[in-house]
Amino acid sequence: MPQMIFVNLPVKDLETTKNFFGKLGFGFNPHFSDESTACLVISDTIFAMLISEPRFKDFTKKEIADASRTTEVLLALSADSREKVDELADAALANGGSAANDPMDEGFMYGRSFQDPDGHIWEVVWMSPEAVANGGQA
């Protein structure tokens, strides 16, 4: 079985967050979801557990970062093309997300970023196949 990753993110309003990611074309795994948690399926091995803040507090003794004021994590997703980067970023901005940083265009690498309704920063990046084969070098 391949190794999987489950990124746990606190959310203020679970339904708002689910609706946002649903409009971006993502689905949810109902087997790992309930009234306080939604399992966002990013790929066959990558998931984001969107957890209501009260439930999230059960998993940590630390304060929950307010992602609208501080950056606790940068989530980066690969895209198959520059056009796919734009499609996802544009969909996020059209459905309640906000711009996080200026677009990045290095020629061999292109990326945009957005904030979800809770302020978590998502980066979407395309890298040319040649650059990937060369370990990220143009």
Please explain how this structure is put together:
The protein has 138 residues and is an alpha+beta fold. It has 4 helices and 9 strands. It has helices spanning 14-23, 53-56, 82-94, 129-133, and strands at residues 5-11, 27-29, 37-41, 46-52, 74-78, 98-99, 104-105, 109-115, 121-127. The longest helix is centred in the middle third of the chain and has 13 residues, at 82-94. The N and C termini lie far apart (33 Å). 20% of the residues are buried. The model has no long low-confidence stretch (mean pLDDT 94).
Cα-atom radius of gyration: 16 Å
DSSP helical segment count = 4
Strand content: 25-35%
Tally the beta strands.
Answer: 9
Mean of the pLDDT scores?
94
Low-confidence runs of at least 5 consecutive residues: none
Please state the structural category. Answer: alpha+beta
Q: N-to-C terminal Cα separation, in Å? A: 33 Å
Major sheet attributes = 5 strands, mixed
How would you describe the shape?
globular
Which range best describes the helical content: under 10%, 10-25%, 25-40%, 40-55%, 55-70% or over 70%? 10-25%
Order of helices and strands: EHEEEHEHEEEEH
